[in-house]
């Protein structure tokens, strides 16, 4: 049963990273700012390569998936301008938290998929010969 869940996690990662690549290439969604494209493209490629490795059942792919979703977990938008951080690769449903200095968005989809990937990774380390 856990192997099937592991396949599902890898396939969702593949789909999510393919959507992110589509956004980077201008095929999906709104055009991205030129200064954000290198980070978005790198994140999308990390997700894609991690998905391929996960489908081959390499633990490295799961670690890459954890990093891929961790990058998307928070977006920071200060009210006064300046430094902001947002990696929206793939699907995003956000919980918006407003503070005095700005807005922080918690990506609930990335949180759920990060938890699922971490659960598979923990299972793989607990049961090493599977």
What are the defining features of this structure?
single chain; 130 residues; alpha+beta; 3-stranded antiparallel sheet; 4 helices; 12% strand; globular
- Unreliable stretches: none
Total count of strands: 3
Proportion of strand residues:
5-15%
Largest sheet: 3 strands, antiparallel
Write the SSE topology:
Layout: H1 2-24, H2 37-55, H3 59-72, E1 74-78, E2 94-98, E3 102-107, H4 108-126
Antiparallel strand pairs: 1-3, 2-3
Helix pairs in contact: 1-2, 1-4, 2-3, 3-4
Protein architecture, described:
- By secondary structure, this protein is an alpha+beta fold.
- Helix content is 58%, strand content 12%.
- The chain has four helices and three strands.
- It has a three-stranded antiparallel sheet with strand order 1-3-2.
- A hairpin with a 3-residue loop joins β2 (94-98) and β3.
- α1 (2-24) crosses α4.
- The longest helix has 23 residues, at 2-24.
- It is globular.
- The mean pLDDT is 88.
Please give a quick description of this structure.
The protein has 130 residues and is an alpha+beta fold. It contains 4 helices and 3 strands; from the N terminus they run αααβββα. The chain has a 3-stranded antiparallel sheet.
């Amino acid at each position: 049963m856990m192997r099937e869940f592991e396949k599902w996690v890898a396939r969702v990662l593949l789909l999510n990273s393919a959507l992110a690549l589509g956004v980077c290439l201008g095929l999906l969604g709104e055009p991205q700012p030129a200064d954000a494209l290198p980070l978005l493209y790198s994140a999308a490629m990390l997700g894609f390569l991690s998905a391929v490795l996960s489908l081959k059942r390499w633990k490295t792919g799961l670690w890459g998936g954890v990093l891929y979703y961790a990058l998307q977990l928070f977006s920071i938008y200060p009210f006064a301008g300046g430094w902001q951080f947002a990696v929206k690769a793939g699907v995003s449903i956000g919980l918006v938290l407003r503070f005095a200095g700005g807005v922080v968005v918690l990506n609930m989809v990335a949180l759920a998929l990060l938890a699922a990937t971490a659960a598979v990774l923990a299972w793989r380390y607990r049961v090493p010969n599977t």
